[in-house]
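Quick review question:
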């Protein structure tokens, strides 16, 4: 399991770095758009770029965040259960979430294929939609893989956290 976990960690780290770079770009684009709006003409297509970039950042950061254990979880009820029940609830939840994001990755990837076939582009900048769909599918896959690794750790290690 160690090599799979290492590969997943590297992929998620790079996805997090790319998401951070895109976030910095979004900040610069917003600042530039504000300044140019005051002195001349705003940057054309800023709204579209921000939408695409937001989707990409969210998708790429999901697996990275799961790897760091920084997703929000509420365990008011679960914390009162015995250890065996906690483990079972964690296993069921992790398995369901992993399956959900794997299916989401599959269907978003299929949507990306449809977008290639139709040649659909954005309204203002005429950018193709399909690369963004594939990045979102990849982000969902990374999260599903990270959740699956957590599930394996639950059964093969004494304490997964």
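Suggested answer, residue by residue:
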């Amino acid at each position: 399991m160690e090599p799979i976990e290492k590969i997943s960690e590297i992929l998620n780290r790079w996805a997090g770095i790319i998401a951070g770079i895109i976030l910095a770009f979004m900040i610069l684009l917003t600042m530039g758009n504000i300044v140019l709006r005051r002195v001349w003409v705003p940057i054309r297509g800023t709204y579209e770029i921000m939408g695409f970039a937001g989707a990409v950042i969210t998708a790429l950061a999901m697996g990275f965040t799961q790897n760091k254990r920084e997703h929000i979880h509420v365990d008011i009820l679960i914390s009162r259960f015995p250890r065996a029940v906690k483990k079972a609830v964690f296993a069921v939840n992790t398995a369901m979430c992993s399956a959900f994001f794997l299916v989401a990755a599959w269907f978003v990837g299929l949507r990306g294929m449809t977008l290639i076939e139709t040649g659909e582009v954005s309204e203002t900048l005429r950018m193709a939609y399909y690369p963004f769909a594939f990045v979102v599918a990849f982000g969902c896959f990374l999260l599903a893989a990270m959740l699956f690794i957590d599930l394996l750790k639950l059964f093969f290690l004494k304490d997964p956290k």
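Why it works: Residues 2-39 form the longest helix (38 residues). Residues 2-156 form one domain.
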